Amino acid sequence: MKYVTERDIYNTEQLNRVLENLPTFCNAFFLGIEQVTSPLTRLGYARDLEIFFNFLITETDQFHNYQMADFEKTDLNKITIDDLELYMSFLSHYKKDGADHLNGERGKMRKMAALRSFFKYFYRRGDLQENIMTKIDLPKVYEKSIIRLSDEEVEKMISAAAENPRDEMIITLFLLSGIRVSELVGLDYQDIDLVNKTFLVTRKGGKQTILHMGQQLHDRFAIYFNEGEWKPNTPLFTKCGHRLTVRSVENIVKKYAKVAAPLKKISPHKLRSTYGTNLYKATNDIYVVADVLGHKDINTTKKHYAAISDDIRIKAADMVKL
Question: Which among 93, 114, 104, 128 has a CA at the least distance from the CA of 50?
């Protein structure tokens, strides 16, 4: 939980810095969505809105002479469908801080999501004559095929990491629990209970959940803890005494994935998908998969969410083996 708190404080500080560069009236929007979004989501929205307002200044005639501080809420009524469609085209390739930025359909959708929320907020408050975002055809996003590792590739990946106890533990934990990379980097020594074969993770939104570990994962943790000195608040995975970042863990996974599956683009999320697939094969129960993975709906697991008992979770923990 300490990691989550520190992460939220950092993201809030970054958000406040970006807000200094946005029109003043934007502050009301971020205050309005504060209770229903995470600091990371709001930071992403702020950065996307900064791109949008800079686009209006540099790429449209009606706002060409504006400075960022010149924008007022009433100016939102002047934005046209043509402006928004031009913006979507602009997002395909633009420069920011001297660097090129490219967006495919998914990238465009994420940035348009910020605008949808932004316009909806001010329309609902009565500050806009109409919500023009409802008249825009958004990019069509095609479903990606799910990439996962085969049993042979899993074995190769773990073997490749065997010389580094920390990295082997990271790969094994992903493949035997299906936790998210953000949940993994937030783990501390005190979150692992080998006696009861459980561990505590902090899910999206700060919700804490106790997960059960199978015997195979329990044994790996026992070996890992025997190879160092541990204190209650010690991060589970470190480098030079500092907690690993999400990016560091992603690089670790890529390093060993190149050995095990050079033709597949493997990330921590793909290891999560591998676990979910194996769990579904073992249980044939999509609701068990949804619950263990922490999905709130089953579009990933079928637009329904069903809580299940600890007995089923304990059984599920031992069903997937390497």
Answer: 114
